[in-house]
Amino acid sequence: MALLLFGLLLMVAGAVTMCVMEGRSGQTVGKRAVGIRLVRTQSPQPIGFGLSLGRRVLHVLDTIVCIGFLRPLWNPAHQTWADSIVSTVVIKTR
Asked: In angstroms, rounded to a whole number, what is the distance separating the alpha carbons of residues 53 and 40?
């Protein structure tokens, strides 16, 4: 039981860390490595912690529906449903 709780704590800590990074700079370590950044659709500003957390929760719903992550293939702005709902877009930095 203790190991399960420890694993859950690590998962939550990792998700919060990613939301903080994405919210402040628009980049996680992985996004920085591949040269992309998450910004608001209206301006090139970082999205903040709240929208980053909401986007992450909505991506879980995208996964349950099993088609949300495929939407960028036919969406002109290459956005998932979560990106459309929170008004974000991923841009290249290089």
From this structure: 14
